[in-house]
Structure formats: C-alpha cells, structure tokens
Design a protein that fits this description.
five-stranded parallel beta sheet, disordered N terminus
Length: about 160
C-alpha cells in the first residue's frame, strides 16, 4: 500500500516545497515515530513499509522524467521484506541515481557497514538510536545535497 506524502507540520514559505524524505522501515511503530519526528522538523515524509514499496515509490518518481523529482533523501532499514536497503542502494547507484541515502540497521557488523559506505550511503545508523541522531543526520545530508532555495529545517 503506497502512502501519500503528508504535509510538513511547519513550513515558512508555502511557495517552496520542503525537502522530502522517503522513510522505509518495516517496524510500524518505529516508522511512525521517526516519521513524526521528521515532520515536526518541517520535512515532507513518504512512508514505506518494506523494500518492495520503497522501490515502487522510487520507480514512480523516476518515471516522471528519468530523475528523482520528489524524493530528496532516502532513510532505509537494511533488513526488510522484499528488497533490502542495500539492494535498493546498489540499484540506485547502478542506475546513476545519486540521491543521499541513510541506512539504519540493528545488524551493524563491519562488513555490512563497509558495503553500505562503498555503495555511497551517507551514513549508517546502528539501532537503537535516539531520534536526535537521525534528525542530525538528515539535516547534515540535506544541507550538503540540496540547492540553497530548498528549506532544510531542524527544530530544537
């Protein structure tokens, strides 16, 4: 089931869309918690409950013009039903799509972390982590990768 992006809770300039985060996590409770924190920071969030749904959202976005138009950042669990976060990251890089990706894992062995970094993951977060850790990683990644006119928020 695809979910539509929900509007960010706060946005300073309604004429400019806030950054959009595609959040893929198969743990419903954790996904809702992280999505709520990111929305409070002013981001639009598209939630995906598994790797297959994550790919569907990306394929739909890519189909519009061959490049991602809606998704500015992907935050993905590694182990999910369907496709893993690393499968998706590898496929994106092979297709020449260089959207920033933050990987989350409860299985953060050094081989997995090394593979994620070699595939171009912005960072790997070991679960459990504080929502503040994710919020800082999202802010840092978007600040590096988005044009200056796209709002990047962080509320304390």
């Amino acid at each position: 089931m695809q979910r539509k992006p929900e509007p960010a809770e706060e946005h300073a300039d309604p004429a400019v869309e806030p950054a959009c985060v595609l959040l893929a996590e198969d743990d419903d409770e954790l996904r809702r918690l992280l999505a709520r924190a990111l929305r409070r920071d002013g981001y639009r969030v598209i939630e995906s409950e598994d790797g297959t749904e994550l790919l569907e959202v990306l394929a739909k976005d890519l189909a519009q013009c061959g490049a991602l138009q809606e998704v500015d950042l992907i935050v993905s669990d590694i182990r999910m039903p369907g496709y893993t976060g690393l499968n998706v990251l590898c496929g994106l890089r092979q297709a020449g799509v260089h959207v920033p990706v933050i990987i989350m894992t409860a299985f953060g062995d050094s081989d997995t972390i090394d593979r994620a970094h070699k595939l171009g993951a912005y960072c790997v977060l070991d679960k459990p982590f504080e929502t503040e850790t994710l919020r800082h990683a999202v802010l840092a990644s978007l600040s590096e990768h988005l044009p200056a006119h796209v709002p990047v928020h962080f509320r304390y």
